[in-house]
Amino acid sequence: MKKLLFFSILFVTIRTSAQVPIVVYCLGLEGVNFDDSSANCAFIDTVNYPGNVWQIGHSTKQFFNNPYSPPHSIMTDTLNHYPANNFSVFQLTLVKPPYLTDRTVQVTGWNIINSDSAHDGGMIQTSHDQGQTWTNLIDDTSAYFFGPNTGYSINDTVAALSGPGFSGESPNPYDQFGFFAAFPVGAQPADDDTLMLRFVFASDSIPDTLSGWLIDDIYIGLICMNVPQLTAFDQLNIFPNPSAGIFSIENKSREPIGHITVHDVNGRVVYSGTLTGDAFALSFLPDGYYEAIFEGKDNRIVKRLTISH
Asked: What is the pTM of this model?
């Protein structure tokens, strides 16, 4: 049996429209921050979309006055409100090195939305065929958002997008989005090395004086799933789950659990310690989804934990 086990170091080649390879070192919190050469990875297509308003820079708009990590972000125009009848895109093209067999990618980032609710907004799309067709991430069966607070749902319809997306006004200074996506499996090796991501903002025919969509610090990492778990811990139960952070353990195996390591959705280790009883406390962690690795002398298993205070 193979399950999600750990977040690995990954060199991802990201191609621009000219197919110039740029190597970005991705591990946990490193990726496209729009402040250095990694910003070149975000291809803003102004040829096919001459009205494209995505720009990289420092915003002078009040709603976007503080980038998540200064000085720069990518946003729908650094100076002006977004126009009516607009369709703007930027894309990231991830190229998997041939020596890697793992296919699942974790993508996180920070964003602010300020748009006419349910009318204008933004969505994330995936393409598994070199950009010939695009699918809303919510409809991609090989991709999914981490949870209800890290994306949009099938019910969040945005008229200008003709489908679900981010819309309205962000309740926080910055909201995190996060999702898993997969490289395609093709008939030939050359068919399955490329995963394309596209960030689309669209508006209807009614002019507004709103800021649009700002995105900062997109992190990309590979999820390793090629380390088998031994089955001695298959009957390990963690309850209640979700909980406010106090979890109990029911271990029906003969091997005691000696250690626990907990990762957040960004792959960061947020807790690591020795288990000495049949319960453990994570109540100091904020609400969200976590992956916990339980280890004994010869076995290990991963459990998804949900904290909700």
From this structure: 0.67
- Torsion sign across C-alpha atoms 199, 71, 86, 119: positive
What is the number of other CB atoms lying within 10 angstroms of the CB of residue 205? 8
- Two structure tokens written together for 260: 């626990």
Backbone phi and psi for residue 156, each to the nearest 5 degrees, phi listed first = -90, 65
For residue 1, is pLDDT > 50? no
d(CA 205, CA 77): 18
pLDDT of residue 222: 65
Q: 3-state SS of the chain: helix, strand, coil percent to 5? A: 5, 45, 50
DSSP 234: T
Are the CB atoms for 200 and 89 separated by under 8 Å? yes
Token code pair at residue 300: 């290990």
- State how far the Cα of 246 lies from the Cα of 265, in Å rounded to an integer: 19
Phi, psi of 200 (to 5 degrees): -115, 130
The tokens describing 262, both together, are 């907990």
CA dist 49 and 56 (Å) reads 17
What is the predicted pLDDT for the residue at 289? 77
pLDDT tens digits, 171-213: 878 899 999 888 886 545 454 578 889 999 999 999 999 999 9
